[in-house]
Amino acid sequence: MKTFVIGISGVTNGGKTTLAKNLQKHLPNCSIISQDDFFKPESEIETDTNGFLQYDVLEALNMEKMMSTISCWMESPRHSLASTDSGSTEEIPVLIIEGFLLFNYKPLDTLWNRSYFLTIPYEECKRRRSLPRWNKIRRGSLFTSV
User: How sure is the predictor about 84, in pLDDT bands with cuts at 50, 70 and 90?
Assistant: First the structure.
């Protein structure tokens, strides 16, 4: 079955998830896989010399599990039939994969039909990371502001 895979990467707090969710609202047969869902347990996250947990590195993510999830979707993508004036045609299932280190993981490179890297000014990123929601436990991991 033909599929269409979009990779959205970029800086943390750069709008990747927001963009993916908005695209999903407008694209039929669209699924999202978020790299944030594949952080390793805190006990497996390395710390730097200052004792800070190192979440901003590829080793903090269970990329094998993420690849398995992607493979499962590729084997059985969600799809449905769309009605058109000329009858029903099958729509192409779309998968959006979003995450801050997607393009650092070479096995993903062959999947992209389209890939996008989002950037925002440093001061805006810093402002977003200082918001209270950034200083909370998310998916079992503690994220701290910069």
Answer: very low
* 85 tagged catalytic: no
Q: pLDDT tens digits for 12-55? A: 889 999 999 999 999 888 999 999 999 999 999 999 999 899 99
Q: What residue has token string 């994969």?
A: 97
**Residues 60, 5, 33: CA angle, nearest 5 degrees:** 40
Residues 6+ apart with CB under 8 A from 13: 120, 125, 128, 129, 134
Strands 137-138 and 141-142: antiparallel
43: buried, middle or exposed (CB in 10 Å: 19+, 13-18, 0-12)?
Answer: exposed
Q: How many helices (H) and strands (E) does the chain have?
A: 3, 8
The tens digit of pLDDT for each residue in 123-135 reads 988 888 788 765 5
Residue with tokens 């699924």: 31
List 96's β-bridge partners, or say none: 6, 32
Buried b (16+ CB within 10 A) or exposed e, 119-129: ebeeeebeebb
Strands 94-98 and 30-34, sheet pairing: parallel
